[in-house]
Amino acid sequence: MGLFDKLKRGLAKTKQVLQTDVRDLFKAGDILDEEKLQQFESRLLKTDMGVEAAGAIVADLREHHGGRTVVLVEIWDTVKRQLQAQLSWDDETGWDASDPLSPLESADAGPTVILVAGVNGAGKTTSIAKLANLLQGAGKTVVLAAGDTFRAAAVEQLTMWSERLGCEIVKQASGADPASVAHIGCERALETNSDYLIVDTAGRLQTQKNLMDELAKVHRVISKKIPGAPHESLLVLDATTGQNGVSQARNFSEVTECTGIILAKLDGTAKGGVVVPIRQQMGIPVKYVGVGEQIDDLEPFDPDNFVDALIAD
Amino acid sequence: MFEGITKSLSDALGAIGRGKLTEGNIREGMKQVRQALLEADVNYEIANDFVNRVTEQAVGEQVLKSLKPSEQIVGIVHDELIQLMGPVDHSLGLKRQGITVLMMCGLQGSGKTTTCGKLATMLQQQGRHPMLVAADLQRPAAIEQLKVIGEQVGVPVYSEPPSESTPVKVCRNALKEAEKQGDVNVVILDTAGRLHVDDELMAELELIDRKLQPDQALLVCDAMTGQDAVNSAKAFNDALEIDGVILTKLDGDTRGGAALSVKAVTGVPIKFVGVGEQLDKLDEFHPDRMAGRILGMGDVLSLVESVRDKLDEDEMLAQQQKMQEGKFTLDDFRKQMAQIKKLGSMGEIMKMIPGMGGMAEQMGDMNPDQDLVHIEAIISSMTLDERENPEKIDRSRRNRIAQGSGSDPSDVNRLLKDFDNMSGVMQKMAGMGMRDRMKAINELKDMGAMDPNASMNKKKERSKRGPVDRNTIREKRKKERKNARNARKKNKRKR
What is the value of pTM for the model shown? Predict the structure, then answer.
């Protein structure tokens, strides 16, 4: 199955919701009036993209097509353009779609360190397993650091994954300082001359000051042990999350300087639209999307394809 | 919890409160209320309905003509919020005889396993004997997680190796095992997380439901969920006819619109809310209190309840007695702090007191809990004698205490000063009626007790007759000097 087929499969539900509704809404030959625009806004709001982003799209539609007869193709075009504009960035435009590792920064020399954080139950550990699988598939050596020393059996969960994947894992007893796990992880990665070190952390709500301080310490310890690390600091975001995702991105970014987002659980009916305001307000790009429960259900994110899969055929 | 929605709602309602109330500005204000609800992840249709209902009632003549129209509108919003989230039903359908079976279900990562542990803790406190069943054979180490939790709570956990079993089999055998054990009277099934669109897994869930006939099926729902909360709740309800919802992760800054939506869409009551990672952080859901909280009216009832649950009554009485006798010592102070700590973090407590929610926010980086730890350490480093008679503490003792507690001698000094001031107020308060007590508390506020940045300063007491303000005193003295001068002049002329 091709790369985008999977993404599209994951987003198929979203697409159906938008499309069927929109086709019912805008019929060629109708007049695009205020009532229709409001109905369309409600559809957009239901993707969790937030009042502001949805408002911008509707305002654009109103300006360009309001009061005129509906031409479906043109309306699509406007909506798509707006969404793409909201998701695009000024730095580098996207990455090489054929190379699944291209979204990741890598170290000039020595191991590349990836720090993974997120709220409870977002899907960190599973995403790490998928990411490790992706890296190993590309012929890289990976060391995992089981930094979730808080939740019951979290270390066991990652250990099981490491056994299935056949990659190395460093761990300490439950309740140990996660920063110390990160420290040994760095040491081990340097020792074995591995290509990648992925550091797991315990799930924490972004409002828990002491836990966020703990995360800051993990970040600090890593950068002390390996200068320039972590090269990637990824936030795992549950696609079902609503507007709280913005707060998550902001607060985690303050502590770990997030370089990207893994949007997990996109295979449900949730649309993950909250990445639009996150991208707009914080500039954090989505790097990967989780589109299923299997180990290889992790795809690099492509904004154009995301929008396409969201609204087009 | 809910500060976000509270803040924008009170902004919106504040806009209504200013100036004269007209139909026009009610509608404008309601538009903001709608936006606030949407930003809080309340389902689109429900937010719309809500606003329409409130507007309808609010523009009625009776409201406009009433003495305090803005308060009336707040009242209407309050009532409607309660309506939207209520009525509640906290029962778990526990049977008097035989074994009650509870089934937990939900999406991945919504917090099912942790909630199982919380429920077991709660049931155990109620004198029941729960057993946990690891029916999640999918996620790696889910069984281990439940086992660890079971150990923490002290309840049996039934599990089978995932490679040779199916969820239905596990549940069935668990029930048999529970019957065999005899004293188990509640069985909690921890099923695997699944997507509501995954037909295969939903069918499996239905199968468990059919074969096991659980007395209640509970949906565990992440409070941070956005618009999709409605879809998944609906799907689970269609498949299982769920009996209740448990809302988790409400201790973050989520606006919790899911709470408003789920009940309205499925008609299934929210029974409990998870408000922390510890296993005792499961509260009953109260829409009236929650509505009050959303509107910034505080949640005194919950505070009172947790005070009643968690504080040692005898201890408190003994201390009150001591206070009244003016014998409140540093040791009592320490004990009292230990009691307060049981209630939760200071921030949590403050959020429940009306008008204090904003203060918790103001504190920002301040960490009152940390301060409590320091204070406790300092007091613990004193000898019993010193705790009884703090005036004995001289420089050498102070240095020793500072060293023992890992703090600075100046910290010790500050604590002693604060304590001195406080015990003064307390002694005064002991002999007062309620009204005077409130006054004394206000006085305490002036002294800096409520200002996180200042340490407490004792206000200088002045005679009751004279003015208190520095400037007025200066003026008065000036006048006196002038009078004296005039008098001297007068006397001179007479001669």
Answer: 0.71
